[in-house]
């Protein structure tokens, strides 16, 4: 059996020595972050976004995802709902962002399909069995999330459209979380037998994963929706300006 990219499931005693210093990953983060800053200029949002990605993939959190599906789901939630919007903030005034704003519904559908696909048992198992598939999962989730957030955060975008995309994201993530939470048997074979060291059965770990996606996963989208609404209400509407 091929070992997952993040390594075998760690025991609690050795978690904090399980840093991931994969040279290809470190070079990718350094080059990617450097090119991003060089092309877009220094930006706190981009810097924080890249720092979060480094923590997700370099720190012992990466190894812990091999043991607990709930941590894997939390890892994905932070990537698509925290790191992705930060990266999108640094891109939202580009021509690409303007194009994606007009294709917001398509970006939502693509991201939704990918999120459900990679959390289905068979594709998820394939990602853990092959590092190339693993990176296809991670990069497609991150890329589609950045595209979706560009549509949500575009300066010229209609607030109604942005709120609809945010609400749709909350609903679809909640539905996926509910499916995972209420499954009556463990669905993810890779986590069978490796969760007990962490005080959870495989089914309990899976239920926790569903709740993470269902509840905390919705909070960033709801928070952004409230910020957008607050800004819209604070801005006076000109007499000839349509309400969008």
From TrEMBL:
Pfam families: Caa3_CtaG. InterPro entries: Caa3_assmbl_CtaG-rel (IPR019108). It is found in: Cell membrane. The keyword Membrane applies. The keyword Cell membrane applies. The chain crosses the membrane at residues 20-38, 45-67, 73-91, 103-120, 132-152, 164-188, 208-229. It is a multi-pass membrane protein. One of its GO terms (cellular component) is plasma membrane. Keywords: Cell membrane, Membrane, Transmembrane, Transmembrane helix. It comes from the Bacteria. This is Cytochrome c oxidase caa3-type, assembly factor CtaG-related protein. It comes from Rhodopseudomonas palustris (strain DX-1).
């Amino acid at each position: 059996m091929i070992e997952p990219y993040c390594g075998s499931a760690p025991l609690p005693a050795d978690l904090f020595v399980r840093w991931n210093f994969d040279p290809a990953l470190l070079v990718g983060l350094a080059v990617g972050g450097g090119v991003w800053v060089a092309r877009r200029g220094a930006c706190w949002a981009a810097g924080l976004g890249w720092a979060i990605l480094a923590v997700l993939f370099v720190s012992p959190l990466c190894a812990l995802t091999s043991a607990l599906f709930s941590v894997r789901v939390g890892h994905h939630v932070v990537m698509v709902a925290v790191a992705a919007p930060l990266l999108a903030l640094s891109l939202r005034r580009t021509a690409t962002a303007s194009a994606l704003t007009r294709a917001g519904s398509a970006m939502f559908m693509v991201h939704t399909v990918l999120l459900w696909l990679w959390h289905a048992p068979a594709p998820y198992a394939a990602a853990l069995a092959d590092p190339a598939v693993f990176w296809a999962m991670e990069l497609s989730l991150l890329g589609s999330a950045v595209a979706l957030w560009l549509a949500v955060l575009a300066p010229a975008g209609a607030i109604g459209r942005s709120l609809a995309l945010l609400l749709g994201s909350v609903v679809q993530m909640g539905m996926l979380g509910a499916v995972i939470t209420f499954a009556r048997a463990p669905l993810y074979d890779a986590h069978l037998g490796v969760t007990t060291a962490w005080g959870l059965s495989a089914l309990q770990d899976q239920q926790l994963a569903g709740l993470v996606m269902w509840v905390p996963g919705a909070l960033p989208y709801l928070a952004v929706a409230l910020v957008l609404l607050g800004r819209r209400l604070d801005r006076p509407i000109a007499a000839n300006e349509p309400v969008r």
